[in-house]
Amino acid sequence: MKKIAFLLLFLSLGAGLSAQFELSAEVRPRAEFRNGFKTPSSSGFDPAFFVEQRSRLYLDYAEEKYTFRLALQDVRLWGEVPQIFKNEGGNTFLSEAWGQYRFTPGFSVKAGRQIISYDNERILGALEWAQQGRRHDALLFQFEGEKKVNRLHLGFAFNSDDDIPEPALLQRPGANFYSVSGNYKSLQYAWFNRTFAEEKGTLSLLAMNETLQNADSTVSNRQTLGTYFTYQVGKVTLSGDLYAQTGRLGGNTVGALLGGINATYPTKATPLTLGFEYISGKDDTDESADVTWFDPSYGTNHAFNGFMDYFFVGPANGTVGVTDLYLKTKWKVGKAALLAHGHHFLTASEQLDDSGDKLSASLGTELDLVYVRKLADAVTLHVGYSHLLGTETLTTLRPGNRQSNNWAWTMITFQPSLLKTENKKK
C-alpha cells in the first residue's frame, strides 16, 4: 500500500497542466470513556477507556472528462501492536477507490469502492462518525440537469467473497453463494431529487432493493421505498421523511415503517429544532412470522436517536422499534459552538415482562452535549458528554441493570491539503 501511494504521488508531479491533482490527509484520534455506551452497564462492571485513531491519505485527480480518487486508510487502537514489530494484523486498507467518467455535462458513470450518501443519510449514509466509515463497491449512473435542479442516480452492486479459490469460483455448484455477514448480496436503487423554486427546499424519492443471502442457498429480497423533504415556511424550516419496507425475508412477509418530522425556528439566541421519529417494531403478542420491524441497515444511524447509540448501532434494539421525541439547539461560545440535544425514547411496540405483564412504553431520557472549536483552518476539536437515564423497561429489554449511564469523548481532527495543482487551460 505504501509503494502504491508513493508511486501515485510521483506520477502526479508529472501530470499535464490541463489536469488537477490534490494530495490531502486526515489524522483523527478519538479518546472515549464508556460507562453504559450502546447498552446499560451492570453492577460490578468497570468503565472502559481507550483511544482509537483514523489516518487517511487522499489522492484526487481530475481532467475535463473524468475524476479519480484513491483513499488509503488505517484504523487502530493506540497500543494494540508492540512498539517493535515486523508483522501486524492489517488495519490498513482502501477506504475509497473509484473513477467517474462524464459522457456529457449531465450524464456520468462512477465505478469502484465509494461512499453512497443521500439526503439526511437515514437510509444510505457515509457513517463517517465510525472511524472506518461505510463504503460500497458499486456502479452508479448519474443524470443531473442544468444547475442540478433535477437529479437522478441509479446504483447497482453485486458482491462476492473469496472463500473459494478464484479458478474454482468460476463454475461450480453454489458458486455465487455469498457468506459475508451483515452485507447484501446485491443492491439496486434509484434516487431522484428536485430543488424547489427559489431554493426553498428539496424533495427526494428513493426506491431500493436488497438481495440478501439465506443460509439454505436461497435469497431474500427486501425493498425500501420512501421520500425525504425540506421546505422553508417563513422563518421555520420543515424537514421530514417517510419510508416503508416490504418484500420477504427467509420466506416471511416484510411490512415496516420509519417516519419523522421536525421544525427548526431561528430565535435571537439560538435555533431550536423540535421533532419526533417513529421506527416500527413487533408486538410481543404478535405470534405471526411477519417482519414488522424497520431496519435502516446502511444509514448513518449515529446521527439519530441519541449519540450514545442505543438504537440501530451495534445492538439493533431487537424487534422493539423506537419512538424518539427530541429537542435540539446550538449556542455560540466565543469562537466555538455548543450543541445540546435532548431525547425521550419510547418503545414502538407493545412489550411484555417475564410474567406476561405489559411494560411501560418509556425507555429513558438522554442528554447529549458537544463542544466544537476550530483551532486552525485544518484543525478541529470536539469534546462530548452524554448521559442516559433509563427506565425499568430499558433494563428489562436490554442487557445490563444500571439505569444511569454515561459516555465522554474528545476528538481532534487534522485535515491538511499537502499538495495541490490547479487546472491551467491553454
UniProtKB/TrEMBL annotation:
> Residues of the signal sequence?
1-19
Task: Provide this UniProt record's keywords sorted from A to Z.
Answer: Signal
UniProt protein name: Alginate export protein
